[in-house]
Amino acid sequence: MSSSRYDQGMKVRRAVLGNEHVDRAEAAKTPFDEGFQNLITEGAWGTVWASEGISQRDRSMLTLALLAALGNFDEIPMHIRATARTGASKQDVIEAFQHVAIYAGVPRANHALKLAKQTYAEMEAEQAAD
What we know:
The chain is mainly alpha-helical. It has two domains: 1-51, no CATH class; 55-129, AhpD-like, CATH 1.20.1290.10. Helix content is 79%, strand content 0%. The chain contains seven helices and no strands. The protein has helices at residues 4-17, 19-28, 34-48, 56-69, 76-86, 90-104, 106-129. Helix 1 crosses helix 2 and helix 4 packs across helix 7 (106-129). The protein is globular.
């Protein structure tokens, strides 16, 4: 599939998540989930993440806070990794999760923070190995 929104979405997706992640996701795509993957690329990446209304840093913090607040923990490590490219600092992430604690509940923020700590530790270990 190729449309201007899809192409823009793929460009933003690669900029935020990195080529390795996107290449793995694309290689895993099948006819069964191709339509869904296209929807994500066009909608999430080609529309929402491509918007210039707020910075990538702010969008990262919002995304992490929303994922934690709604209990969608599976994508938190991916978006923690993305902070290396969006400019959201560890302190930014802590601030976002503090908001989650107050407005959505301490257990969700606590679990999100645990995932963030694990992911940052993995990232640091990977960086040290390089």
